[in-house]
Amino acid sequence: MTGPVATGGDEPADVAIIGAGVVGTAIARTLACQDVSCVLIDAANDVGTGTTKANTAILHTGFDAAPGSLESRLLRRGSGLLRDYARRAGIPVERTGALLVAWTAEEAAELPAIRGKAHRNGCTDVRLLGADELYGREPHLGAGALGALEIPGESVICPWTTPLAYATQALAAGARLRLRCRVTGIRPGDAEHQVITSTGVVRCRWVVNAAGLYSDVIDRMVGGDGFTIQPRRGELIVYDKLAGPLLSAILLPVPTARTKGVLVAPTVYGNVLLGPTAEDVADPEERGTTGAGLRSLIEAGRRILPRLVAEEVTATYAGLRAATADRDYQIRVDPARRYACAAGIRSTGLSASLGIAEYLAGELGEAGLRLAGRPEPDPPVMPYIGQAGTRPYADAARIAADPEYGRIVCHCERVTRGEIRDALASPLPPADLDGLRRRTRVLNGRCQGFYCAATVSALLSGTGSA
Amino acid sequence: MKTEVLVVGAGPAGLAAAIELRRLGAGGVLVVDRDDGAGGIPRHSAHTGFGARDLRRVLTGSAYARRYADAAAAAGADIRLGTTMTGWEGPHRVTLTSAGGVEHTEAATVLLATGCRERPRPARLIPGDRPPGVMTTGELQRRVCLGGQRLAGRALVVGAEHVSFSAMVTLSHAGAEVIALVTGQPRHTSYAAFALAAAWRWHVPVWPSTTVARVQGRNRLEGVELAGPGGIRFVPCDLLVFTGDWIPDHELARAACLDMDPGTQGPAVDTALETSVPGVFAAGNLVHAAETADVAALGGRHAARGIVRALGRGPAPEHLPLPVTAEPPLLWIAPNGLRVAGQPGTCPPSPPPRNRFIVRSGVFRRLARIGVWQDGRRLATSATYGMMPDRPVRLSAAWIGRADPRGGPIVVRLER
């Protein structure tokens, strides 16, 4: 699956997709299900390791997108598709709703305009809430809130299972996946393109650029100079599950021109997320947290949800959004060069992914790529790692059928040997501990491996199969 | 199923309680532990120093753990390993998960002895990259002592309390070269002998007043930025071990909505180690994170006596707890309630384990006394101690008979 692709003799692939993030895997899935032969290429050792893995894990309705923009359209379409897909694929989603809270008179004065924008974006259920109703809904909210806008459709989702489901479906539909494969150049040709990579040449008729933070670099390889990616770092703090009961909805601030601001959100795993910061950085690999960033988040958290900051921190991390100077998505299809680009997706790629894939596939079809035009097959059913449903450790029937689901290895997250075994035997197995974390939640709990890291490492390396 | 006593946690406190419960005649004693081996944290401590106070001998951690596990089994306790208590269905009804399935167990009394863990790096809010090679002592010792793993390269230990020296020894035995122990405190808080042994035998210095400002290394750990007396400097290392900074494993206690003590962050317990829910007890490092294994075991033994009394008394407790709190710079006191009889004057308050309270200080003091106060009245003044962070100050409970059972909370504070 990740071995070398034949460089001579064989037929070239119809499409090479560069970048196996949530957007690239969604495109691969959509195309592969239409009998398009795809090769999905990524420099990392797993799918979804860039912007996809480190974000706020919110399934946006697009209520605050610029009305009439491509982003608004694809976000609305994509979030609806993903909601349905997630239900069928077992991707954890919870419709928590969001409350956009006004803390000053100026912010309160902006709420009606934001509501108007939401209505223009098709979110007609968005409404204003007075302070009393707001505190009735969120009794732990800090003092001083004047009112809020309620966005009932906003949801939280598992950002890790989503690209894994897409990639698993793409593989089942015949796509090939080349991981640990860095694209170093592209040689365009009349009959076929040659994508030069660190592990050989990939021949293809079309190149699709879904390279996220590196999409400008890939674009220049095919002669484009249309845009530059400006990585924008967002630091986040994950609080212990014991903080979970402190809120029920996503708590948003009134956005500024530059950023959507610091939010507090439940996660599908039961934790509470605080962040993100927004800071432009030069290096697309700069994913470190900073003292100043973490301090500023805790200050914000103390104001929004005072009791939150007294709880234990389970994790801190930083993600990078792929921003561009142009605020809208950069999605283009160039039939003459048989090149397509899905870039500048910033922070809405997870929510819009299926909308982007559907739109791009349509554009590619218009441009001459042959699509089977058949209805989509059912998605794969993924291991459920959320907290709202029944996990294997709590499933008596499942343990009775297979006792490995009763042997808890990671106690904080209650991950069983059965789940680790399944992940290792899956069509897209993890390459390392981080990959296993994203598939099972092992090591993602409050103790961060105090109890189980030694055992889990042994299971991963195949020496702990006792 | 039903049992008289459910003990959650087969570490020193849980096993010592089970042995004592059986000795005192308790019928069904079910001990569950999520781990695959009995004995708790001492299981993966290869060094000696365990058992002085409870067993009157000194053993290695693994021998100590084995001894308790064997004794509890011989006493007739039903010990189930690989069994996790996953939740409460009622005050005395719990859900257990194991390879054998999901079980619902009703217990007349419950002892929580779930111990404590070290705060990992994220909980300490240390910024920087997130490479592998960063761990706690717990993970290190499981890897080395239970997994037989060898380590190579340079290691830096964060912390300079007892467990930090234990981590240093483990690292050295496993093949790593320990550069230093760093602590934000002005000096180490372990025994002088440990620091001397570290310096002379292992050539490992303690760098005081030094904190980790940033972790560097994207794919593998390259080193850390240390903030110390000389400013910020970069120290290359391949392993970074966070030690101490204990937090009780209090999830089950909080899930039961037990009253929590803000100082210890464990469940609030009275001197009989009963929590705010009658019939639910807590002992060991869940209520004083972290003391040595023998102190935890003696707490478990003490809790057993309270449990046996509770088994005989029916559903309602015949006592009232009187809160006992510590004032800064003291951080906490355990137990944090004085158990007095419901009818004043009928009998003296129950004493705490070992007839003493454990107090934790946040500061160094060479000559300090602790005063015990109630409603503006001083009940006692302690002997003079030297006190330091991370180390217990043992406060005699000789004063408890002088407390007014109907008075206000009891406060312990540093006397000038």
Summarize the structure.
The complex is a heterodimer of chains A (466) and B (416). Chain A has 466 residues and is α+β, with helices and mostly antiparallel strands. Chain A has twelve helices and 22 strands.
Structure characterization notes:
The complex is a heterodimer of chains A (466) and B (416). Chain A is α+β, with helices and mostly antiparallel strands and 466 residues long. Chain A folds into three domains: 1-93 and 155-228 and 326-373, 3-Layer(bba) Sandwich (FAD/NAD(P)-binding domain), CATH 3.50.50.60; 94-154 and 230-324, D-Amino Acid Oxidase, Chain A, domain 2; 392-461, Arc Repressor Mutant, subunit A (Orthogonal Bundle). Chain A is built from twelve helices and 22 strands. In chain A, strands 1, 2, 9, 10, 11, 12, 19 and 20 form an eight-stranded mixed beta sheet that branches. In chain A, strands 13, 15, 16, 17 and 18 form a five-stranded antiparallel beta sheet that branches. In chain A, helix 2 (70-89) packs across helix 8. The model of chain A is unreliable at 1-9 (pLDDT under 50). In chain B, helix 1 (12-23) packs parallel to helix 2 (61-74), helix 1 packs across helix 7 (293-313) and helix 3 runs parallel beside helix 4 (162-173). The radius of gyration of chain B is 22 Å and the shape is globular. Helix content of chain B is 20%, strand content 35%. Chain B contains seven helices and 28 strands. The A-B interface holds A 238, 242, 285, 287-291, 293-294, 298, 312-317, 393-396, 399-400, 403-404, 406-408, 411, 414, 433, 446-451, 453-455, 457-458 and B 34-35, 82, 84, 86, 95, 97-102, 117-123, 125, 127-130, 132, 135-136, 138-139, 142-143, 146-147, 149, 213-216, 218, 247, 251, 254.
